[in-house]
Automatic annotation (TrEMBL):
InterPro entries: BPS1_pln. This is DUF241 domain-containing protein. It comes from Camellia sinensis. Residues 252-279, 512-539 form a coiled coil. Keywords: Coiled coil.
């Protein structure tokens, strides 16, 4: 008995002691808590789906553990492995079906909203209502079929006997089964939401809700109304449009409010399902990095410092993309489509990015060399002619760089249009999501490398003083940093400082100091940009090589 107790006590310890397993248990407990307190509303289901996504992130870490993979590999031919695989495939199908249903609901809701705004008569609105009602009836039937299928998934996995398995394998199976059970629980709640009875003419079921809707209380704030979900609220609102005991204005307002609420809730559920459907950590991290870049784009200034920060974020994004490309599933998916046009366009895109990144890096090196020549000339102070010769060389270089940058900007626009224009026909959801992620990485790369080109193509300062009068005054006071002039970048500051050297309305010492300060600042910033471009260049080389290897294995 003692021996049995010891064996039982140690069943899950090796697995549970790992942080990934402990985190899975925490997420499963959160799902259980959600189940106990959830209401049949889209908002509650959206919260449940978000928790399920968190569970799958943890489970991915758990499955990547060498011990877990070793345990599963040695039992790959056993029935319970096949049942688990079939279970996850079925859950994937159900998740995709539910996501498509949410999209269709949203489309019907928007049609109804459009009909209400047009107000072309009762017949027009009633036609839209009839279409929506038919869709709801069909969705209800489909949901009930899927509920039956989900019960079979759960029963099949639970019924598989686990004989003569060691404690670690038993623990792995337990974790996977609990993940399936948690998935079934939450996806089942969404199917129940979709299969809610459609409102009929009998008044008993809807009397309370109808009164609340008449008062505009569509949100159902009181505890009693929390059991009325967004679909039911819309049913009541649409039913009321055909009644004669409410004013036209009240009926329209109630319907618009309930449709607006349903649309927002459905969009949340749709987004949560989309994340769950493709919630591999690599794609999630790519999305997070893309959001960081979008935040940068909305708040960036045209300075070398801002560009250096954005290039660092782009490097992080490309690290995540490399992780995605290294996945066996990704490589398998791409290899099966190696002959298609969009693969070739992506390869060409990365080659072009590699060339542009390399060109920008070389330009930064040349700027740095010109800056050092100018600094050397200023230190020697061998007269105005010597300094002016160095300034003339720098100005000539800047003009040529500006021309080259404008040519590259045109190339990048063409590249972006080419990749986006390639149609993706007859592709499954997995490969479509993969292509979307890769295209977004290319688009973000184009955006940030484009900002570098805009920085390089900054107009060169001419003799007219209107554009730089304020900056010139600041430079003469030694305020090269331009703390209150965020839109003045380092190249412009150098232009102003060099231009001031040729003027006679300020002290020679002040002009020299201003020029030295601005050149020192530009040199430091350019070096930062150059270093990040070098790292990014290596990332593009690696991405190109990975894509080439995937395709070449099929040739």
């Amino acid at each position: 008995m003692g021996s049995s107790s010891k064996t039982k006590r140690s069943i899950s310890l090796p697995c549970r002691s790992h942080p990934s397993a402990a985190t899975i248990e925490e997420e499963l407990n959160k799902i259980k808590t959600w189940k106990e307190s959830s209401t049949p509303t889209a908002k509650s289901i959206s919260n449940g789906l978000s928790r399920l996504e968190d569970l799958y992130k943890c489970m991915e870490n758990f499955l990547n553990l060498p011990l877990t993979q070793h345990a599963l590999f040695h039992h790959q031919h056993e029935k319970w492995i096949g049942d688990l695989q079939d279970g996850f495939v079925s859950l994937l199908d159900i998740c995709g079906t539910e996501r498509d249903a949410m999209t269709q609901i949203k489309e019907h809701v928007r049609d109804l909203q459009s009909a209400l705004r047009r107000r072309k008569g009762d017949s027009s609105i009633e036609t839209c209502i009839a279409k929506y009602t038919r869709f709801r009836k069909n969705a209800k039937k489909d949901a009930k079929k899927l509920i039956t299928a989900m019960k079979q998934i759960g029963n099949k996995i639970e019924a598989t006997p686990l004989l003569e398995l060691d404690q670690h394998v038993s623990s792995v199976i337990k974790v996977l089964r609990e993940a399936v059970a948690g998935s079934i629980c939450i996806l089942h709640s969404l199917l129940l939401f979709l299969s809610v009875p459609i409102l009929k003419s009998k008044p008993t079921r809807r009397s309370l809700v109808s009164k609340l809707l008449y008062k505009g209380a569509v949100a159902c704030e009181n505890h009693l109304e929390e059991k009325v979900n967004e679909l039911e609220s819309v049913d009541v609102a649409l039913h009321n449009l055909c009644r004669s005991d409410l004013s036209e204005g009240d009926k329209m307002q109630i319907a618009q409010n309930s449709l607006k609420s349903l649309e927002a809730s459905i969009e949340d559920v749709e987004n949560a399902l989309e994340c769950l459907f493709r919630s591999h950590p690599s794609t999630v991290r790519i999305e997070e990095e893309l959001n960081k870049i979008k935040t940068w784009e909305s708040s960036s200034t045209p300075t070398a410092e801002a560009i250096s920060n954005s290039l660092s974020r782009l490097e992080d994004l490309n690290k995540c993309m490399q992780d995605l490309l290294n996945l066996p599933l990704t490589q398998q998916a791409l290899s099966h489509h190696h002959h298609e046009k969009w693969i070739g366009d992506l390869q060409d895109g990365f080659v072009s990015l590699l060339d542009i990144c390399g060109t920008e890096r070389d330009v930064m090196t040349q700027i740095k060399e010109h800056v050092r020549d100018l600094q050397s000339a200023l230190r020697r102070r061998k007269g105005d002619s010597s300094i002016e010769i160095s300034i003339a060389k720098y100005t000539c270089f800047r003009k040529n760089t500006k021309k080259d940058a404008k040519k590259l900007i045109a190339v990048m626009k063409h590249m972006d249009n080419k990749i986006e224009a390639t149609p993706l026909l007859e592709l499954d959801q997995d490969i479509s999501s993969l292509i979307k992620a890769l295209r977004e990485v290319v688009a973000a790369s184009i955006s940030i490398l484009h900002s570098v080109l805009l920085f390089l193509s900054m107009p060169i300062l001419k003799s007219k003083s209107t554009r730089w009068s304020l900056v010139s005054k600041l430079l003469q006071k030694g305020e090269v940093a331009c703390e209150n002039q965020e839109n003045v970048n380092e190249l412009e500051s150098v232009d102003v400082a060099l231009h001031s050297l040729c003027r006679s309305d300020s002290n020679e010492g002040d002009k020299m100091q201003s020029a030295q300060n601005s050149l020192k600042s530009l040199e430091a910033r350019i070096e930062d940009v150059e270093n990040v471009l070098e790292c990014l260049f290596r990332r593009f080389v690696k991405a190109r090589a990975t894509l080439l290897n995937i395709v070449s294995h099929q040739l």
